[in-house]
Design goal:
single chain, 2 domains
Amino acid sequence: MIKVLLRTIIIALGKMGLIHRFFSIGTRIAKFILPEERTIEVGKYRMIINPKEDLGLYFGYEGVEPEVMHALKRLLKRGDTFFDVGAYKGYYSLMASELVGESGKVVAFEPDRKAFDYLLKNIKINNISNIIAKNIALSDFEGRSGLITGGMGGSFR
């Protein structure tokens, strides 16, 4: 019951363009009431996520970056190679995997170890063989750097 109510609220806030204004409050509430890990259906894919970190996916709000999803569908063809830089838990990698087909491949780069572990789990539960996952960061310079992580991904310094 609570999940249905919260899902309805999140979708409504998303449609009104207000989801980010209430995100910090929702995140604090989520840390108390949501489970640590859950397998969910996202479109055609099954994904293992931490609902406390992935509120939008958990509650079914699929309005996150719809322009990216449309561009992938328009641009990727069978046999292509797709580089997912900052793959996080793999939603775009999963989608690209289907679009490029068995003759294509997806190379998914995710520097955060925790997110990378979820990426590997999500590739496995969807039985996908054309994704190559790399636990490394990409940059415009050669060398070492730090990774600062947060609830919604990370940044470099």
